[in-house]
Model the fold of this input.
Amino acid sequence: MRRADRLFDIIQSLRTAARPMTAAALADKLEVTVRTIYRDIAALQASRVPIEGAPGLGYVLRRRFYLPPLMFTADEADAIAIGVRLLRRLRDPKLQSAAESVLAKLAAVVPDPLQSHLVAAPVFVSEGSAPPVCGVDLGELRRAIHETRKISIDYADEGGRQTRRTIWRLAMAYYVDVTLIGHGESSETIFVTSASIASSLRACSTSVFPATMEN
Done:
């Protein structure tokens, strides 16, 4: 492992740790000697990374410390590039646009050798055969889920009968197309493949949870 990668891993380990980590624990995790960890922590502290602690007691990273842009490994860069391309299969234009924006921001700050891994990776992902989503704003759907609001949908059952349903306890399960999973107010569970049988969607003003549960 390169020293730069190891220093990054030390910061990440301390950032996510629920309690102080000893040099021995870090050494075991990173497969290096305790002496190497002491040297690395001293180097990070000299670079003004706010690591506090002492040998034998453990180390913590002061809260609200944010890493500057750092190097991704080749596998990490490929994972990002492939993940963005896989989003095209979801038929969610706003999510795809957001992913491409994230990719552009990352490409602007990584070192030159990694830029091609992100923006011109030699990987190809088929766009799938799912039909485009019509009549449903998936961005509005995601916002309603985050805000725990009920959703009113115009819904066609397997026999083609049109009804209007209000659903709650929502989640979005991403497969090739998008499936909205909800619980109908009339107590039935509804699985709606939004690209095929949900013709419209409207977020309600009412919350999924009663006021007494929200407080």
Summary: Strands lie at 51-54, 58-61, 149-156, 162-174, 178-184, 189-193, 198-207. Helices lie at 3-16, 23-30, 34-46, 74-86, 93-109, 112-119, 138-146, 211-214.
